[in-house]
Amino acid sequence: MRSPFECVLDVKASLGECPTWSVDEQALYWVDINAPSLNRFDPHTGDNHAWPMPAAIGCFALREGGGFAVAMRDGIWFVDPEGKPRRKIADAPYDPAHHRFNDGRADPQGRFWAGSMNEQRDAGTAKLYRLDADLALIPMISGITISNGLAWSPDSRTMYHADTATRTISAWDFDPLTGDVANRRMFAQFSAATDCPDGGAVDREGCYWSAFYRGGKVVRISPRGEMLAEFPLRAMCPTMCAFGGPDLKTLYVTTARQRRDAEELSQLPQSGGIFAMRVDVPGMPEPMFIG
């Protein structure tokens, strides 16, 4: 099947993740967890600038005051606009010998959320954490193996969260005022070995977009959990989606090439690149961390 996606940055990242569109800069920030690096991609020029990080970088959020809040293996840091870590604001809330931070982003009210993952994948020992404006790091959801797929509905009343290892996406009631979650329910569950929901994003119609790691596709799911469409791309391991462009109608997808065999990479040589396609329904501007 012909893919609607175009590879806009053939960077061959080991584990590309956390694409985040800056409306102010009209640029896409993203990470390579394994490099490790924080990156800035300018789609107008095609230039990508990578800032090396001192430890595996799972996710980040742009800060309202400039720079970034970055979740690394050893904790959460403030990183300046030039990509230099300046201050550790929270120690790692797990044993970094076998856990690290993974997927995360700011919620619509400006709190920073970061989930962890159990790299041994043998137990649900990871958690989802919330970092408030006063820099208190609060565990919110436990019993996770690989925290992923964090996103919010347009009215901020529903929070979505995936556990990739169990092939499930959950929906939670979300209180925008307090940042509390309640009433977990199954939003979508998958059984095929390659239907592993990784990072996600929500468009203005409230539909949830999920990158299927090892599935070579991105799917669009209705607010009722109905599968609406599938979009293949020329990489087996898409990791996360983000809406960008001047009208927020360009869907960017990061991908990975780690642990893929030589035969697959010869057939899908752009694995690890950033892909993009135009969509009919725009996304929403990515929130910033207010702390």
CATH superfamily: TolB, C-terminal domain
Name the strands of the widest sheet in spatial order.
1-24-23-22
CATH architectural arrangement = 6 Propeller
Coarse morphology: globular
Q: Strand portion, in percent?
A: over 45%
Rg, Å, rounded:
17 Å
Largest beta-sheet details:
4 strands, antiparallel
The topology string of helices and strands comes to EEEEEEEEEEEEEEEEEEEEEEEHE
**What oligomeric state do these chains adopt?**
single chain
**So how many helices?**
1
Instruction: Tell how many strands the DSSP assignment holds.
Output: 24
Q: What's the domain count?
A: 1
Quick structural summary:
With 291 residues, the protein is an all-beta fold. It has one domain: Neuraminidase (6 Propeller).
Would you write up a description of this structure?
This protein is mainly beta. 2% of the residues lie in helices and 52% in strands. It has one helix at residues 262-267; strands spanning 6-9, 16-22, 27-32, 37-42, 47-52, 57-62, 68-72, 75-79, 85-91, 99-106, 112-118, 126-131, 137-144, 147-152, 158-163, 168-174, 181-189, 196-202, 208-213, 217-221, 227-232, 238-244, 250-255, 274-278. The strands form 6 sheets. A 4-stranded antiparallel beta sheet has the order 1-24-23-22, with no helix packed on it. The protein is globular, with a radius of gyration of 17 Å.
Write the topology of this structure:
Layout (H helix, E strand, L loop, with lengths): L5 E4 L6 E7 L4 E6 L4 E6 L4 E6 L4 E6 L5 E5 L2 E5 L5 E7 L7 E8 L5 E7 L7 E6 L5 E8 L2 E6 L5 E6 L4 E7 L6 E9 L6 E7 L5 E6 L3 E5 L5 E6 L5 E7 L5 E6 L6 H6 L6 E5 L13
Antiparallel strand pairs: 1-24, 2-3, 3-4, 4-5, 6-7, 7-8, 8-9, 10-11, 11-12, 12-13, 14-15, 15-16, 16-17, 18-19, 19-20, 20-21, 22-23, 23-24
